[in-house]
Amino acid sequence: MLKAREAVQKLKEYHPPLGGRRGLRLDFNENTSGCSPRVLTKLRNLSMEDLARYPEREPGERVVAQHLGIQPHETLLTNGTDEAIHVLCETYLEPGDEVLIAVPTFAMYEIYAASTGAKIISVPADSDFAFPTEKVLAAITPRTRLIAVANPNNPTGALASQKDLLRIAQAAPQAALLVDEAYFEFCGETLVAQWRQQENLFVSRTFSKVYGLAGLRIGVLMGHVEQMRMLRRNSSPYNLNAIALLALPEALGDREYVKQYVEQVLRGRAALENELQALGVHYWPSRANFVLFYLGAGCKPFIAGMRERGILVRDRSNDPGCNGCPRITVGTDEHNQRMLTALREVMEEIGVKEKVGQ
Ligand SMILES: Cc1ncc(COP(=O)(O)O)c(C=O)c1O
Fold this sequence. Notes:
Largest sheet: 7 strands, mixed
CATH topology of the largest domain: Aspartate Aminotransferase, domain 2
Oligomer: single chain
Order of helices and strands: HEHHHEHEHEHEHEEEHHHEEHEEH
Bound molecules: pyridoxal-5'-phosphate
Strand order of the largest sheet: 2-8-7-6-5-3-4
């Protein structure tokens, strides 16, 4: 009988709870309204010729590189950040190598790393989900070959300092350090171009969040030219489809759209955090477009109550240290208003009352 590799047989199945997502989508940290209208205009004018040709990735890499002020050869466009993580794992990991992952965090690091047969070393976050720099440094061994950090982190919204991340990269020159900046636009701190000093550093970005293009699957992995040469060898030449490549320059070109969306998210995030504070609910201050908070036994009724009001939010209870924690994505002013109104009602229903005077 045909058998998958042992490492693959051992993988846990990962089913994001997407099924039948009807209502206001505050559960996957997507853009809650959508992409720049410029993208849609472009796609409405697609020609048969556009679809008949094999897609050319390089012009897209030139556009992204120019936007970020780096060289095209320092970039690799990928089919979402997911593929960036996959290619990194396939390029650097041998069975038995060690991969350091500070948890809780984004699930795909562990999945793609474990599928190579590498050994996953989970490092628990410090108190209040702060990034565990000293614990990560202490866990580095000569077999450490990949360290993956979401910065800001999902689902906590915590941000590791650039200084600490560079210390880690320096302490493990034999390992690739991936700094996943999926939520960069909401925090503004980046390690882009630092790989010129630190060759084992990689940075990834995505078009699934602020740009509202999760359905098109566009990400970019960046790093030192010599390392990117290796990654390129190991990636499919047509990993991005023609439609995604046509959309990309339009999405990047509409800076005003992104700026306005980010402003709304930052306003909404502050309003949500203030509301939770007033309710006496413990939350973790976030640098991303979502907020994680603790409701304990109230978590499931809260999520159900929001769903009854047409609002989808995510239960993060299965993440390490997150039992009883919902996570809410923040979006446009209008969506944030709807969310706050429903949140107040549901909190009242489950017995969490506003503390007067706070
Ligand atoms: C930290 C982090 N990285 C990457 C992704 C996924 O990005 P993409 O849609 O580009 O694969 C997510 C999505 O939730 C995320 O939270």
